[in-house]
């Protein structure tokens, strides 16, 4: 079998981490050849070196293009001419991307094509491509999104849709009216041994942070609701907790979050650590992992926290947390947006070693369903059924 994966880039992100996990999981499967198309090569493509060497990788746009276009985009509001230049460059970019994807697909004898996210939806010629095409769906459909209708239209074009939890499968079946037999649920594979190994690379005393502490790891964007987390933490501090809060990650919200921390006078208690390539030691030694995101798919970082036996307090946002936390047995699920309840539950757990021990006991019994071996077996079976139907 020869398969092609397509994705936007290899920056530090949850979906990119999942892609790398799959490539590392599958590259040594007998009689399975894998190739990869990445749209943008960027300075932030931190996962580039983790792509297995036997996987051929095509980059459609180089680093120079990415930098030049970003400059045009940032300056687009300066004048009408700047806006026109940006629009023209975007048109040329789309045309080149579509042509290059067509060229690669038609020059190779792929058995299956896998669009790993929504980026390549407009660049696949569904009328000409003869091979089965799979679309990975990492996030719940969002009815409030201006792209909601368009996303449903794209999903209907694919031969198979892989979702990452049962709740998401039901949502796509009901809202997008996609037949159930075209939807397959596949949990994200987790490199358990590698995560534990990385967590042990740095000893507790080498972390250069204060103990005890709470932790959060994700890109700093609005959907993750870090502002809510900081306000929850402010209330916990008022109630007398001794734990500090460390937030690991980078993104567009960094400056806004720092302003909120300063406004609440939490500069010495709530620390933005920025991007850390190996966050696992920080997760391992935390008392709790806190997660206030309003929308997820199957958040990998929650699985990683469970592997490291760190209980989670998470908003019960659409798709993901409920299945990862086994309906609240492996951590606390909070009604979405209820900051008061989030504060109360976190405070309760921090003051109950028995509750933490119970969560950790449940984690050890449950985490095996996300094992690599199980996921690899299920994925190869999906490929075979598509090819040899």
Cα Rg: 22 Å
General form:
globular
Instruction: Write down the overall mean pLDDT.
Output: 94
- How large is the share of residues in beta strands? 15-25%
Number of E-state strands: 13
CATH topology of the largest domain: Rossmann fold
Topology as a string of helices (H) and strands (E): EHEEHHEEHEHEHEHEHEHEHEHEHHH
Q: Which structural class do you get from the secondary structure elements?
A: alpha/beta
Reading off the top of the CATH hierarchy, the class of the largest domain is best stated as Alpha Beta
Largest sheet composition = 7 strands, parallel
Helix content: 40-55%
CATH superfamily membership of the largest domain: Glycogen Phosphorylase B
Strand order of the largest sheet: 3-2-1-4-5-6-7
**Assembly annotation:** single chain
Number of domains: 2
Keywords, please?
2 domains, six-stranded parallel β-sheet, Rossmann fold, 14 helices, 389 residues, seven-stranded parallel β-sheet, alpha/beta, 13 strands
Topology readout:
Blueprint: E1 2-7, H1 14-26, E2 33-40, E3 56-61, H2 63-74, H3 80-107, E4 112-115, E5 133-137, H4 148-155, E6 160-163, H5 166-175, E7 183-185, H6 192-199, E8 213-217, H7 226-238, E9 244-248, H8 254-263, E10 270-274, H9 280-284, E11 288-291, H10 300-307, E12 312-315, H11 321-324, E13 331-334, H12 339-350, H13 353-366, H14 372-387
Parallel strand pairs: 1-2, 1-4, 2-3, 4-5, 5-6, 6-7, 8-9, 8-11, 9-10, 11-12, 12-13
Coiled coil: 74-101
Keywords: Coiled coil, Transferase
GO molecular function: glycosyltransferase activity
């Amino acid at each position: 079998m020869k398969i092609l994966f397509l994705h936007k880039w290899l920056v530090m992100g949850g979906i990119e981490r999942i892609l790398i996990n799959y490539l590392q999981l599958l590259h040594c499967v007998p009689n399975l050849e894998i190739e990869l198309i990445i749209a943008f090569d960027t300075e932030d493509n931190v996962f580039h070196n983790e792509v297995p060497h036997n996987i051929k990788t095509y980059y459609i746009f180089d680093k120079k293009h990415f930098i030049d276009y970003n400059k045009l985009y940032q300056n687009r509001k300066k004048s009408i001419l700047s806006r026109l230049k940006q629009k023209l460059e975007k048109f040329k970019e789309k045309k080149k991307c579509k042509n290059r994807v067509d060229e690669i697909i038609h020059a190779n004898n792929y058995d299956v094509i896998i669009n790993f996210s929504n980026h390549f939806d407009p660049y696949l010629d569904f009328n000409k491509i003869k091979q089965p095409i799979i679309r990975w769906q990492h996030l719940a459909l969002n009815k409030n999104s201006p792209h909601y209708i368009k996303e449903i239209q794209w999903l209907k074009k694919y031969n198979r849709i892989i979702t990452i939890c049962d709740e998401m499968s039901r949502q796509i079946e009901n809202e997008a009216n996609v037949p159930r037999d075209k939807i397959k649920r596949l949990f994200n594979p987790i490199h358990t041994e590698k995560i534990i190994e990385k967590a042990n690379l740095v000893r507790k005393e080498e972390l250069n942070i204060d103990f005890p502490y709470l932790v959060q790891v994700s890109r700093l964007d609005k959907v993750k609701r870090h502002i809510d987390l900081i306000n929850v933490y402010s209330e916990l501090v008022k109630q007398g907790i001794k734990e500090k809060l460390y937030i690991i990650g980078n993104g567009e919200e960094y400056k806004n979050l720092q302003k909120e921390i300063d406004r609440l006078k939490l500069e010495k208690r709530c620390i933005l650590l920025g991007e850390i390539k190996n966050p696992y030691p920080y997760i391992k030694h935390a008392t709790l992992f806190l997660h206030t995101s309003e929308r997820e798919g199957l958040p990998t970082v929650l699985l990683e926290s469970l592997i490291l036996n760190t209980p989670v307090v998470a908003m019960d946002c659409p798709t993901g947390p409920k299945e990862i936390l086994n309906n609240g047995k492996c951590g606390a699920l909070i009604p979405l947006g209820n900051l008061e309840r989030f504060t109360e539950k976190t405070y309760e757990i921090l003051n109950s070693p028995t509750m933490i021990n119970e969560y950790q006991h449940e984690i050890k019994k449950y985490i095996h369903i996300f094992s690599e071996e199980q996921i690899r077996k299920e994925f190869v079976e999906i490929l075979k059924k598509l090819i040899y139907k």
